[in-house]
Design brief:
With about 120 residues, chain A is an all-beta fold. Helices cover about 0% and strands about 50% of the residues of chain A. In chain B, a hairpin with a 2-residue loop joins strand 7 and strand 8. Classes of the chains: A mainly beta (about 120), B mainly beta (about 110). Chains A and B meet through strand 5 of A and strand 5, strand 9 and strand 10 of B.
């Protein structure tokens, strides 16, 4: 069955960096676009970044552009989110989500929590 | 596209119907002719689960008491008879103009 398992979250200070990982299984990873979506505590969902199946096309939300880098390793079925210059407002549960076809999400991971606090 | 859901809080009675509105600031009809409007349900402590895609298509395993309708900029999720497992937050999401979500509607008994 399709599984997305995020990891790498933690408590960090403002201005520092963190790398999130998403391990995928149960499907042909290299055929799918993957996204990161975040949810601040008690708040709604916000799209963060996306990467094409071959990794050649990358998209970022304006709120994180210039501070995050999405990447993938199709040989390892992994997608990553490198986050730099973290801010208090980046505190959120970060989900990895699969795009089965244009404009859609079907499977989501359980999320990894990033807390930015001094 | 900005998605505006209403109401933001919906107290309901078991067995009764419920309806959530999602209005977009621009048409969600894509140049390919499809309308990429989905509905998700999120229970406390869980990831979002997709219920409906492309306005009215129910996902596998989603009870038929859930239905989606609408067109252009106005969309609705209806639950015909609310059950206890239906509590949580419902989000609409549009995939036509990249990705945006509604603010969420909290459904509680």
């Amino acid at each position: 069955q399709v599984q997305l398992v995020e990891s790498g979250g933690g408590v960090v200070q403002p201005g520092t960096s963190l790398r999130l990982s998403c391990a995928a299984s149960g499907f042909t990873f290299s055929s799918y676009i993957l996204h990161w979506v975040r949810q601040a505590p008690g708040k709604g969902l916000e799209w963060v970044a996306a990467i094409s199946s071959d990794g050649n096309k990358i998209y970022y939300a304006d709120s994180v552009k210039g501070r995050v880098t999405i990447s993938r390793d199709n040989s390892k079925n992994m997608v990553y989110l490198q986050m730099n210059s973290l801010r208090v407002e980046d505190t959120a549960l970060f989900y990895c989500a699969r795009e089965p076809s244009f404009g859609e999400y079907d499977y989501w991971g359980q999320g990894t929590l990033v807390t930015v606090s001094s | 596209a900005v998605l505006t859901q209403s109401p933001l809080s919906l107290p309901v009675t078991l067995g009764q119907p419920a309806s959530i509105s999602c209005k977009s600031s621009q048409s969600l009809v894509h140049s390919d002719g499809n309308t990429y409007l989905s509905w998700f349900h999120q229970r406390p402590g869980q990831s979002p689960r997709r219920l409906i895609y492309q306005v009215s298509n129910r996902d596998s395993g989603v009870p038929d008491r859930f239905s989606g309708s609408g067109s252009g900029t106005d969309f609705t999720l209806k639950i015909s008879r609310l059950e206890g497992e239906d509590v949580g937050v419902y989000y609409c999401m549009q995939g036509t103009h990249w990705r945006t979500f509604g603010q969420g509607t909290k459904v509680e008994i």
